[in-house]
Amino acid sequence: MANPQEELERLRAAVSGLTARVYRLEQKAGVDAQPQPETALTAPQTQTVQPPPPVPSSAVAAQSPPSQAPTFATAPKPGAEDLEGTIGKLWLNRIGIFAILIGVSYFIKYAFDNGWIGPSGKIALGLLAGIGLVLWSERFRSKGYEVFSYSLKAVGIGTLYLSLWGAFQIYHLVPSAVAFIAMIVVTASAIALALSQDAEILAAFAMIGGFSTPVLLSTGQNHEIVLFSYVGLLDAAILGMVTLKPWRRLLVGSFLGTATLYVGWCSEYYTQDQRALTVFFTFMFGAIFAAIPLLTPLTKSRWRRGFSVTLTLLPLVNAAALFLALFAMYDNERVTLTWYSLGLAAAYLALSNQFKRRAAGHEDIVKVVNLLHIAIAIAFITIAIPLKLDSHWITIGWLIESAVLLFVAVRTKTDFLRYFAGTTLALGIVRLLLFDNFQVQTLIFNARFATYLVAIAILGGIVAAGERHVSSHEMPYVRFAGVCLNVLALIALTLEASDYFNRQLTNWYQVHGQAAYGQMHQIQLARNFSYSAIWLAYGAGLMMAGFWKRSAFVRWQALVLIAITIGKVFLFDVSELQQGYRILSFIALGAVLMAISYVYHRDWLKLSQPAPEKSAQETST
pTM for the full model? Predict the structure, then answer.
């Protein structure tokens, strides 16, 4: 009997030889084989191993593969089998079903034309066909053909709606109430199928059918309570679906359907006598769509789907539509509209607070929605101001609102509110300059100058706070506010001088008539001279402020204003003013220019020297 150790070593050597042979054959065949480690190909060095018995050549020939590498020329191209299967399994199936449906429809039309089937039979056949298609579609869904199954369901549901419409509108077989309830059952069934099968497309079919029902069953009569109650229930059902499924796009369709039916009804049937009831339904619709952020799930995956439309644009459009509907009904009752605006502002602020509590832990979501609700509330407050106030009080209200918004934006570090503050401030200034019409009777102490002072004070606060808190890329806005401040101040002072002398002219003319022409001319000359004096004095004061604050930007504004004043003195005052005013204009202008030049020449503020090292370090830090 052979030694077991020798038998084991012999088997190891045989396996090593076979492994090496397979490796060489794989290399000849072009197969990417992993190289074998050396230890597997060599016998242990410590013992002498007898070579394995020779293998017959016939066995080697039987085990050896062909000498040439296998070819793949006859292999199918990638994707060809998939395309063929798609055509054979899916498209041919659809085309076949479509062909059968066409043939059946031709048969039904032939039967209708020859009187084989009466009106009741037609409706019954349509209802049975619709139900049959829905049931038949389940067979395809169970086999994995979900898309095709939903297509059949769409055809079946549409057939049911059209059959019920025909039963009421065409053949008058059932009253409107029966057809209406039957369509509600179809819509509810479609919603149930959508939820049970997790199919958004079926929910969309149910939504389309639900909003089409009032149109299909319209009798041409006014049924406001029934119509808007039904639409409200349908909106609530769709919102309920969205709370369970991430189907936010349905909310857009629901809003469009509601708006379409609302506008269509109002254009045909609304009267002043129905206003109270219509306002109730208007607020009901607005509340349903305003509650979207409070009722929809807050998981990030669901939140981000359709985020930009349903949770940012839709609340804005809903708020705008709500106010426009109220405005159309209360166009001539501004006090009532004002209270509605303020009430809506308070409601959206309350919604913002409730959402903040509910969405704790979702900071990214809270920030966007809170700012959105605050923006809507601000918009309603801004609208309420011109509705309640008159004349310059509207401008003052907008200016103060902009200051409050800017203060809150800075304290809360909310850039979103800064844009609203800037927009409101711009509205107030534009209204002040272009639309407000003041009847001024006193100098300085009047409503116009007070309104200008409010705007100047707000701009001054922006400049003062901006120099301490804003970053470098925001500094241009602060400088622009400074320029606007100086322009408003010059306009206010110039208007005061103009109105003062115009009142003098009016008084002299009323007392003396044409005989006072000489004195009136003197008043006109004094008015023109006052403009130069005001601009020159303001420019000198602005230059002093620039020296004091070491601000080149302020000094450049002073230089521009002084240049404009120089142009007026040399081009206008020389030809228009009398000798005395002309002398005063040139002497005053020359004195101011010499004083400014002297300050620059002496360089008392060290403007030509570089800033101290300490200041440079402070600036860099």
Answer: 0.57
